[in-house]
Amino acid sequence: MCGIIGVLCKNSNAGKIAYEGLKRLDYRGYDSWGLAVKNDGLLIYKRTGKITKLPKKMFYGSCAIGHTRWATHGKISVRNAHPHISQNGKIAVVHNGVIENFQELRDFLAKKGFSFSTETDTEVIPMLIELYLSRNLCFRESVRKALLHLKGSYAIVAISELHNSLIGARRGSPLVAGFANGTFLLASDMQAIAPYATKAMFLEDSELIEFNRKAKVYDIETGKRINKPVKKIDLKLHSADKRGFEHYMLKEIYEQEQAIKNASLQSNALIEKVTKLIKQAEKVFIIGCGTSMHAAMFGSYFFASIASIQANAILASEFQNFLNLVNKRTVVIALSQSGETADILEAVKSAKEKGASVIGIVNVVGSSLTRLADATIMMNAGPEICVLATKSYLAQLSVLYLLANSLIKKHEQAKKELSEAARLVPTIIKTNESKAKRLAKKLKNAKSIFIIGKRESAVTALEAALKIKEVSYIHAEGFASAELKHGTIALIEKNVPVIAFASDASDESITNAIEAKSRGGFIIGVSSEKAKCFDYFFAIPKSKLFSILSIIPIQLLAYYLALSRNLDPDKPRNLAKSVTVK
Ligand code: AGP
Per-residue pLDDT for 31 more than 70? Predict the structure, then answer.
């Protein structure tokens, strides 16, 4: 997924504002970046890699657009970096999404004398706009007509050397408009505009906005004006900085105490509405991707063990295969931190077409999932900037725990238990952070790390493996501890690291840890008690919510493994914070 931004302002420092905003978006994609500024013509500046210094000449101008890229079409290169320019050099466009018919459009435009200089799908957009401008349409209509050619997803921002407007439009990718006394902003998420905007407007699919002296919104299909509300926004909720931490990842691990507490701050009316939907359902599915899928699996355990309700956890990307089971008596609980993951949005749209009710559990305000869901529970975890999900994961688990208990009218008790668990987070970090740092030095050259656990801890094992893999690039595999003897134990030999989650020394996974130890494995226990078989031990205070809390030492281990391998934990290679492409 890419980050896009646009700025139109009267005090001609549009380039500087766009650059600052772009730096707040670099977690969305960082293969390359670029800006275009309208200042005596269009000035363009593009580089590969993460955002670095911008030449002073780019700080000015009345209008500017910027982009951080996560490559989909075309290799990582300056040429393929956005903004992309029309043939006559007068139009600049930045784009987040995938144009599925770009080759067909290239052929169409080539026949009209246009030639291309990049490998990207995006380059067809400024060319189409130029084509319509050459037919004497206004800038807005030229953009709108150009967009009608596109198949696939887009959020775009466009500027023109010949016009004073800033234009944005979306279908399938997020775009938010910001307003701040005379400065207009457009961005892929609130994060980029929070320091400047005092009001915001979330664009819906098939909407185009034109900023000139004021903002006007149009329907892309019909060209008709649309009246849309502008909302006052809570700035503090969206402004995130490192607050003294070296990386967002560590900051967000430390923020998990507050994240668990905030997750349980849900209105009774909303909880009642959601539990009613679930109780009336004939079938319940919980869907997600990546870490959110792990949370979905946790939800399945909680719903079964606490509320005796069957809720099948299914990968959002595989949900299409289960649509025969979906009808108007189905409830789909969709988990997504960003609320923009393409796999989730596609699954939710398919479920709604079959008449299902959708409950969203989301972190980002105003995201697409919040607008698609029939009811949305906000995680309230605050901005999560690190590409890795940490605090949002614990927030998801907390919401699901609260929901499962609400189904049996134990909502208040669950809130108390979550509050007690939250209070343990600082102790868990204090007890285990330096141990995690030491263990990271020992494991930094490991070929593989195996992770086992029982019941919900079998899911924690999956999440632990994902954290280690995506931030340190060390192979890790998590699975239910009893499965070890059904095959993977063949890989256990002297010094192979095996992390075992065990709520206490009587946990059945200890037996499986001993089996691994007897084959030479190096056993790392995460438990409330130090078992004899542990060669290394992360202590978790006794807690009913051990299964939620026990991931924390391994989040810390993953973080320090990345540092021990001189990697940037906030921006791992090849990843993006929200995968808005399929
Ligand atoms: C988790 O650390 C990853 N960043 C990734 O698996 C993520 O959880 C997944 O892409 C889903 O994102 P979402 O919650 O925003 O939908």
Answer: yes
| Whether residue 71 has pLDDT greater than 80 | no
Mutate to test the pocket of ligand 1, among 189, 396, 579, 580 (most ligand atoms within 8 A of CB): 579
CB contact at 8 A, 493 and 516:
no
Model pLDDT for residues 502-518, shown as the tens digit of each residue: 999 899 999 999 999 99
Q: Please give the Cα distance from 28 to 18 (Å, whole number).
A: 15
CB 240 within 8 A of CB 382: yes
Q: Is 467 known to be catalytic? A: no
* For ligand 1, atom 7: residue with the closest CA: 290
Residue 224 annotated in active site: no
Q: Which residue matches tokens 């021990």?
A: 564
Instruction: Looking at the CA of residue 289, tell me the nearest atom of ligand 1.
Output: 11
- Residues contacting ligand 1 via CB (< 6 Å): 289-292, 336-338, 341, 344, 387-389, 470, 578-579
Q: What is the pLDDT of residues 195-227, one digit of tens each?
A: 888 898 888 889 999 999 899 999 999 999 999
By three-state DSSP, how is residue 152 classified?
A: strand
Which of 2, 9, 386, 533 is the catalytic position? Answer: 2
| Alpha carbon nearest to ligand 1 atom 4, residue | 388
- Among candidate residues 442, 467, 577, 582, the one labeled active-site is 577
Alpha carbon distance 38, 49 (integer Å): 24
Tell which atom from ligand 1 comes closest to the C-alpha of 466.
2
Domains identified in the chain and CATH numbers: 3-235 (3.60.20.10), 241-409 (3.40.50.10490), 437-570 (3.40.50.10490)
Distance separating alpha carbons of residues 5 and 17, to the nearest angstrom: 9
The fraction of the chain above a pLDDT of 90, given in percent, is 80
For residue 561, pLDDT over 60 is answered with yes
* CA–CA dist 176, 202 (Å, integer): 5
Amino acid at 23: K
Residue 340 neighbours by CB under 8 Å, 6+ apart: 1, 173, 174, 364, 367, 368, 369, 578, 580
